[in-house]
Amino acid sequence: MRKLRRLIFRLLLLAIILIVGIMLIKTFSFSSKQLTGVEAVSQKKVSENAIQRFSQAIQLPTVSSPTEIDTSIFSQFDTLIQNNFPKTHQELERTVINQFSFIYKWAGKNPKLEPILLMGHYDVVPVEEASADQWTVKPFGGELKDEKLWGRGTIDDKLNVMGILESVEMLLSQGYQPTRTVYLSFGHDEEVSGKYGGQSIAKYFEEKKIQFEYVLDEGQMVVNDALNGLEQPLAMIGIAEKGYTTLTLTAKLQNGGHSSMPPAETAVGVLSKAIYRLQENPFPIKIEGATGQLFEYAGAEMSFFYKMLFANLWITEGLLVSQLSKDPAASALLRTTTAPTMLRGGIKDNVLPTTASAKVNFRIIPGETVASVADHVRSIVDDERIIVQANTEFSSEPAPLSSTSSFGFRILQRSIQEIFPDAVISPSLVIAATDSRYFQNVAKDVYRFQPIQLSRSDLKGIHGINENIGIEHYHRAINFYRQLILNSSK
Ligand SMILES: [Zn+2]
Fold first, then answer.
1. Among this protein's residues, is 190 annotated catalytic?
2. Among 84, 100, 239, 286, which one is most buried in terms of CB atoms within 10 A?
3. Cα-to-centroid distance, 438 and ligand 1 (Å)
4. What pTM does this model have?
5. Band of residue 255 on the pLDDT scale cut at 50, 70, 90
6. For 458-489, what is each residue's pLDDT tens digit?
7. Alpha carbon distances (Å) from 475 to 44, 46, 421, 481
């Protein structure tokens, strides 16, 4: 008996030594995916007027609306960029789409090379009245204070529009011409679907049979305290984007009546149960795709303990999944999310309604589809009294993964490293929708990255209160675009 026990003990010990051994080997061979031999590029001095021009752009409240926009403001923005970037307007070919979206073509020396497209949008979300008094500056004042520019749109997304234009104007005034043709596009309704801006611009390129080597839009950025275990800032390049759909769940019951004699089940109760079931059965978490690649790139640069965790997903995945699913931000990167957002039912407190309905919003991870989400919901709800309806008009499928071994990814990686030399660079998933989702058919690869470095707390300014950007950060963004245009011509 004792012999047997000793044997089991020895076997267990051997197994543990073996597992630890494999874990260590995997950790030490978890090799870096960062580029080597890339030197930081010294920043070019940016014209002092650049920040003034940016401030003027912020002072125009180009607020998006699904119904009607203030067209005079959008026209003023057009005039502003025409006046402020004279060389761009003289030397680049401009096409206007639906009156307020603009395409610029900067012809390259070698027409055989596929062009690139740098995108941005200049419409902004409104300032919520309830939060207006929490702004410490006028949201559309374009105020310069504490070495920062303040106001709606300083990050999302006039930063890109103005930054791209500054870099082009700067290169033009040095007499530069790219080898590869560079297109710029600026949409005017990204915040309300992008139908007349981004989507129509993509259609224009499709009709003209213009195919891009790569497209770059907003989406991800450089984040200082992005991940536990990673000391360096993390520069994320969005290589995929989540899809979007909202389902309406309607409970329909035969009996309404007076609330003094309620039946065992009511429409409100049946609907509540369905929502409860959905929340209790979230979509599965998967460490794969763009987020899987994020951990491959970032994991290799982490402190030893975390590096060991990410190098050994074969044994640590369960633990990581349970930890990550507790954090809403991490969870959003790893699964299709379920968010009940609206409820409707009943007209009076003492009348039982025969129907009650709810809207539930889903952000769909690549690999699933609008249809597969609806199927999943029906099977979880599993109640024939609940009708599940899709809103096809505002649904979008997740954007597929762009390559990480392409020319575009390599050029982006290099340019980011030259301008943000401290950052670790990784692919990533974008959880919000951007105009770039319309460009899959006209580009080999679509990437989403904004050249700005923020901490996680700064991110709250986007669509929130006190949105601002450091002047230095803006200058760096201009330098980034300059560098990207130069590198893309090599
Ligand atoms: Zn945006």
1. yes
2. 239
3. 14
4. 0.91
5. confident
6. 777 777 899 999 999 999 999 999 999 999 99
7. 9, 6, 16, 10
